[in-house]
């Protein structure tokens, strides 16, 4: 039912059952919010979204109050503005005054609110927090001094990811957000997905910086510095430079990275193609022998950690293949180094990932052999933008270039790794070929491409076998599907899980903010690439076939297993 | 061997969150505090994250996360006792025992805590030692009191 309400002396339309906030924002009236999260139930904790409703004794939080027909609302009356300003002043009263040196300077919601509400002086001064930043995590830093206790990170961790690694402790002015027993994040059940960073309004949560090491290596003439970038980066980096979301600037990234001084620039989609081939072969082997099914993808390090700590009895079900990042790292320090006769010790590999869990993955014990780490440093999309700015490169106005060829040609299936459902799609395309000897005619799997669903399923007949595929994004849905399997469901052979909602396009290292419409645009850009490019199957990638012929041997054979596969172990954390 | 915590948890018959505080309280009565082990076991039983249980428990001052001493001293911090100068009493305890609110001496003998009004304002300052109440305590009494308690400790080490 649609009815009229009066807002700021004008009549607007509202739907029955929606909140005041949603009616206002649909009609172009902006009310500031802090603790509000679009897809979750309102918490009404911060009160920054208060509005004046005629006849009500107190201001009401618009994010929680349902709209009613009789309402006459004022969104920016003096009383409302005074209340909002006081809230911001109170939040700032114990905030460290180091905006200039803050990770989120210029991109901070609290800073923006202070500007919007014209806070120009410190009217209320409180005692500053003395907590130390928690730098124990391999991929993220937590600085409780800057926390304004909006609770968004706690809610995303509990309600979307389903991990609950952090929570509020104590109460009143002693209240804080910490992992269990106030210990370091490295001991907690945090899976490093980074969704908390994506929703943090201030600089209380941010990724661990790898820039200084990279700059040192770039300046070291003895080092051969090689960079690889994830399939996702090309459709998200432009946003950091103020371009509308969904623009693919792949060629410009290649050119910019060369200008910065990287000796070689590779596209990790090539690694994704190899990952596809290996996973497809492993899947087909498992289906034929009916062992360790359903098989889980292993390219999302957050999901891998989740299985290791929470469901260690299911480790066998994980594909043993390394993630594209690690495959590329290994090939650069192995195949590439041998081909060009460079010592692996002199090579420094950098990867650009949309994800902070990749920082954790690169530091896993299994990824270092004889003192040589496959991937030395991992940058997020945000850090890459910082690096590009630091080197004074006008990325939006440079000529496009191609990635280096030896490990850089890709199929569009590799590009699909960026979106939830893409890994499954790429793997099915190749598994179908392995099982039937023919290529899929309808290579677009529409069932796995719907954007809004956290969980998708699809079945395909390939020769004598039927492959059931389930795709999960939002970790909380993974738990549900694991439960179904525990209760005897056996029609699913492959489960693809990406911890972040929507897949890597919404990873924890992407530009902040990543709104829903941005994510849709990014996903569309990825599918456009799949439409336009001619090589649509990983097994049709000519360079990859050459690599298998000359160096790797047959997929899943002994040589491939030592180079491309890894092992996972039970992990003891504070669950 | 089954620990006491296991026994308490096994007694429960539903995993509903509403029973959580009861279980935590029961554990605290027996163990004297909530150990990490206790919280982790409770979290497994209720299928909640330990961060959550710790968060809930730390909301209440009632729950302790460090073991208490053989003699747990509560000093009243209510208005009447405050006017009867408990702050000096507190300082005296802190000076002799060299511990602060919420801490325990290294030998595990004494722990100290400041609590809100105990409801005996007429006989302030009030302190309680292992739930036994002492009235009109003056700072000068503290030294002897602690000495007596130390002598009554009947533990065989």
Give a short overview.
The complex is a heterodimer of chains A (575) and B (157). Chain A has 575 residues and is of the alpha/beta class.
Protein architecture, described:
The complex is a heterodimer of chains A (575) and B (157). Chain A is an alpha/beta fold and 575 residues long. Chain A has three domains: 75 residues, Ubiquitin-like (UB roll) (Roll), CATH 3.10.20.740; 117 residues, Alpha-Beta Plaits (2-Layer Sandwich); 353 residues, Rossmann fold (3-Layer(aba) Sandwich), CATH 3.40.50.1780. Helix content of chain A is 35%, strand content 15%. Chain A is built from 19 helices and 19 strands. In chain A, a hairpin with a 2-residue loop joins β14 and β15. In chain A, α7 packs across α13, α9 packs across α11 and α9 crosses α15. The two termini of chain A are 45 Å apart. Chain B is an alpha+beta fold and 157 residues long. Chain B has two domains: 56 residues, no CATH class; 69 residues, Glutaredoxin (3-Layer(aba) Sandwich), CATH 3.40.30.10. In chain B, 44% of the residues lie in helices and 11% in strands. Chain B has a four-stranded mixed beta sheet, covered by helices on one side. Chain B starts with a helix and ends in a 5-residue tail after the last helix. The interface between A and B is medium-sized, with 19 and 16 residues.
Q: Would you count the extended β strands of chain B for me?
A: 4
CATH topology of the largest domain in chain A: Rossmann fold
Name of the CATH first level of the largest domain in chain A: Alpha Beta
Which fold name corresponds to the CATH topology of the largest domain in chain B? Glutaredoxin
What structural class do the secondary elements of chain A suggest?
Answer: alpha/beta
Number of helices of chain A: 19
Largest interface, per-chain counts? A-B, 19 and 16 residues
Q: Helicity range of the residues of chain A? A: 25-40%
Largest sheet of chain A: 5 strands, mixed
Architecture per CATH nomenclature, i.e. the level-2 architecture of the largest domain in chain A:
3-Layer(aba) Sandwich
Physical arrangement of strands within the biggest beta sheet of chain B: 2-1-3-4
Shape of chain B: elongated
Mean pLDDT across residues of chain A: 91
H/E order of the elements of chain B? HHHHEHHEEEH
């Amino acid at each position: 039912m649609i009815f009229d309400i009066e807002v700021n002396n004008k009549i607007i339309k509202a739907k029955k059952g929606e909140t005041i906030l949603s009616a206002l924002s649909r009609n172009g009236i902006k009310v500031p919010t802090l603790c509000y999260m679009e897809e979750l139930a309102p918490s009404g904790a911060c009160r920054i979204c208060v509005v004046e409703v005629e006849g009500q004794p107190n201001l009401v939080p618009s994010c929680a109050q349902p709209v009613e027909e009789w309402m006459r609302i004022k969104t920016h009356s003096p009383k409302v503005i005074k209340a909002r300003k006081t809230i911001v002043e109170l939040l700032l009263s114990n905030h460290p005054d180091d905006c200039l040196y803050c990770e989120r300077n210029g991109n901070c919601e609290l800073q923006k609110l202070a500007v919007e509400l014209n806070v120009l002086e410190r009217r209320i001064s409180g005692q500053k927090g003395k907590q130390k930043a928690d730098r124990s995590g391999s991929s993220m830093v937590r600085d409780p001094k800057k926390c304004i206790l909006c609770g968004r990170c706690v809610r995303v961790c509990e309600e979307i990811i389903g991990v609950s690694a952090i929570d509020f402790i104590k109460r009143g002015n002693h209240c804080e957000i910490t992992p269990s027993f106030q210990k370091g994040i490295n001991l907690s059940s945090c899976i490093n997905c980074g969704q908390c960073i994506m929703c943090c309004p201030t600089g209380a949560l941010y990724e661990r910086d790898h820039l200084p090491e990279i700059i040192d290596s770039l300046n070291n003439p003895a080092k051969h510095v090689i960079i690889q970038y994830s399939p996702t980066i090309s459709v998200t980096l432009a946003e950091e430079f103020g371009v509308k979301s969904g623009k693919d600037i792949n060629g410009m990234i290649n050119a910019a990275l060369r200008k910065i001084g990287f000796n070689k620039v590779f596209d990790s989609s090539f690694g994704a193609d190899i990952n596809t081939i290996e996973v497809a072969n492993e899947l087909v082997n498992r289906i034929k022998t009916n062992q360790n099914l359903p098989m889980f993808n292993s390219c999302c390090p957050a999901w891998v950690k989740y299985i290791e700590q929470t469901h260690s009895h299911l480790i066998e079900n994980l594909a043993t293949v390394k993630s594209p990042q690690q495959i590329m790292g290994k090939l650069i320090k192995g195949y590439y180094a041998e081909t060009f006769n460079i010592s692996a010790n002199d090579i420094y590999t950098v990867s650009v990932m949309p994800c902070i869990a990749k920082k954790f993955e690169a530091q896993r014990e299994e990824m270092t052999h004889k003192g040589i780490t496959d991937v030395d440093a991992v940058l997020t999309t945000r850090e890459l933008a910082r690096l590009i700015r630091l080197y004074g490169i006008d990325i939006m106005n440079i000529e496009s270039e191609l990635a280096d060829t030896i490990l850089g040609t890709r199929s569009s299936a590799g590009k699909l790794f960026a979106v939830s459902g893409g890994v499954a799609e790429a793997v099915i395309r190749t598994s179908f070929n392995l099982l039937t000897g023919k290529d899929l005619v309808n290579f677009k799997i529409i069932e796995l491409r719907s954007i809004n669903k956290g969980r998708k399923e699809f079945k395909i007949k390939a020769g004598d076998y039927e492959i059931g595929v389930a795709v999960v994004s939002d970790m909380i849905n993974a738990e549900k599907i694991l439960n179904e399997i525990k209760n005897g469901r056996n029609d699913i052979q492959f489960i693809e899980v990406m911890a972040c909602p929507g897949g890597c396009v919404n990873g924890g290292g992407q530009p902040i903010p990543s709104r829903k419409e941005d994510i849709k645009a990014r996903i569309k850009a990825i599918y456009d690439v799949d439409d336009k490019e001619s090589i649509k199957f990983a097994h049709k990638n000519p360079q990859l076939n050459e690599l298998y012929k000359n160096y790797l041997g047959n997929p899943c054979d002994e040589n491939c297993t030592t180079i491309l596969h890894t092992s996972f172990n039970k992990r003891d954390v504070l669950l | 061997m089954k620990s006491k915590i296991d026994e308490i948890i096994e007694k429960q018959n539903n995993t509903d969150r509403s029973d959580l505080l009861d279980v935590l309280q029961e554990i605290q009565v027996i163990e004297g505090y909530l150990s990490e082990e206790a919280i982790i076991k409770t979290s497994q039983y209720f299928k909640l994250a330990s961060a959550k249980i710790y968060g809930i428990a730390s909301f209440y001052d009632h729950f302790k996360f460090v073991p208490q001493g053989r003699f747990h001293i509560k000093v009243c911090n209510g208005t009447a006792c405050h006017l009867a100068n408990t702050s000096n009493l507190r300082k005296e305890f802190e000076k002799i025992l060299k511990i602060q609110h919420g801490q325990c001496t290294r030998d595990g003998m004494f722990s100290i805590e400041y609590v809100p009004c105990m409801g005996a304002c007429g006989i302030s300052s009030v302190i309680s030692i292992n739930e036994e109440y002492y009235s009109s305590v003056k700072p000068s009494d503290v030294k002897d009191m602690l000495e007596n308690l130390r002598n009554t400790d009947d533990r065989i080490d």
